[in-house]
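Q: Is it fine to ask for two folds in a single conversation?
A: Yes, each is treated on its own. Send the first.
Q: Here.
A: Result:
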Amino acid sequence: MLNRTVLFISDGTGITAGALGKLLEHFPSTHFTQVRLPFTDTLDKIKLAQEAILHATELDGGRPVVIMSLGNIELRNALKQSNAYFIDLFNTFIDPLGLELDQKPLTGAGIAHSVMGSSYHERMEAINFTLGHDDGMTNFGLEEAEVILIGVSRCGKTPTSIYLAMQFGIKAANYPLIPEDFERGVLPAVLHKHLDKIFGLTIKAERLHSVRSERRPDSFYASLENCRKEIATAEGLMRDAGITWADSTSRSIEELSAIILQKIRKPVN
């Protein structure tokens, strides 16, 4: 396993530069030590960043990777005096796009927030909604939900709901299927009028057994037999109601969210 330091250097929060860090997933044979340097917006802070680059070089015995998002050309050029492999958001993507559009791109910290202000507020509203409708906490306001995730306890409903809210501004509620539902043999009555919004999650019994055992070891709730029974019954309820579902066992939250967005036909802004 190779060791390499990657520095995310930005004049703002670093969220955009951090997103480019997904590129690193294509190189599983390298262990990346991540260093984040947000709000690098003065020459003095650039000098601190250069010191961090030098330290990483000495530590790894090779030059680090720098993923940078600096709108100020002077700061960009100053940082590039260091010995590193640079992935420059502006030089690689934004400046060429400006040439194609024959427009001068906006630069500076907070541009994404200022340009997409309405989207930001939508996401905040979605997050508040999702947190308030986690795990069947309340049935009030479910008509506002854009998607309602259902499934057995600990199958990934909460993290997927929160990701949908944070990344895409989706008002996502989630509702657990519990033993009382299994005994009745039908979905909870509160869900009947929202069937067009419901998306199911399922999971392999062995994985669910492992997850539940971390929370309640040696319990009936976590037993493999109970996990198998709950999953089979939940899938039967969803099948009878005509609900689409996805298996969360080996899928990331990002993959699950993409499947859900496609199902509810929600365009990503």
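Q: Second one now.
A: Result:
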Amino acid sequence: MYRLTDDLAIIQTLDFFTPIVDDPYSFGQVAAANALSDVYAMGGQPLTAMNIVCFPIKTMDISVLKEILAGGLEKAHEAGAIIVGGHTVEDDELKYGLSVTGVIHPEKVVFNTGARAGDNLILTKPLGTGIISTAVKGGVANAAAEARIVKSMTTLNRKAAELMQETGVHAGTDVTGFGLLGHASEMIEGSDVGMVIHSAAVPFFPEAREYAAMGMIPGGLHRNRDFRAKMVSIGQSVPDYMADILFDPQTSGGLFISVAPEKAQSLLERMHREGIPEAALVGEVVAEPKGEIIVD
């Protein structure tokens, strides 16, 4: 973030990755929504975006790239942002994303630190996109499951960010590659608070349970679990599949918000009324144990 004046700060982000769905237009939408989410997670408004493309021109038809860029453009327009150019390089593996610039008042920036003991924790999208995407790549996932995660991943966090700003919250982040527990760990690392996550309250795509039991586990899930093992304690009553889902790397996941308890219910109700039906209260910030997450 770059503070320009007393009432204007610039947020700059960059995200790009390889395809996780087969349809190039949908992939472009997912990639754009994912990149835009970094601005929304801080409570900002995207203004401009630049395409970042790695493309195997010798082995893939250029029409694929056109569809990807069209999907990204559609989401940028939905966000009210303008595509101002981009960079393209030849590569053996297709990759696409955006560098996004947004604006926000310096005093209204939502950081991923600052959660306070007693806060309630709200998650705005279901988990499980990584597991289901792995099942899609393995030819196991059904069409309905794929359609559900594509709809979720192409849904902007714009409305959730607007409601978060209007309510006033203590901390927030978007849930992406580190999974819910990975990003939650970032929020309390080195702080004087901890978290309790109620696994039964966490929304997830139902197929993720089935595919996790089949072993459709992305490599990133294991890395997430190993990296945060010392910070996370999972209760014996929590099913193995739920532990997998909580560490599952997400693409274009929802926002994870720490908000004062007296504001949490009204924020949740507004989200439900204004098109975020799966938003859920999933836990609390606690004074003890500091720097740890308890999953019950």
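Q: Anything structural to flag on that second result?
A: Two points. Residues 8 and 105 are 5 Å apart (CA to CA). The chain has a mean pLDDT of 95.
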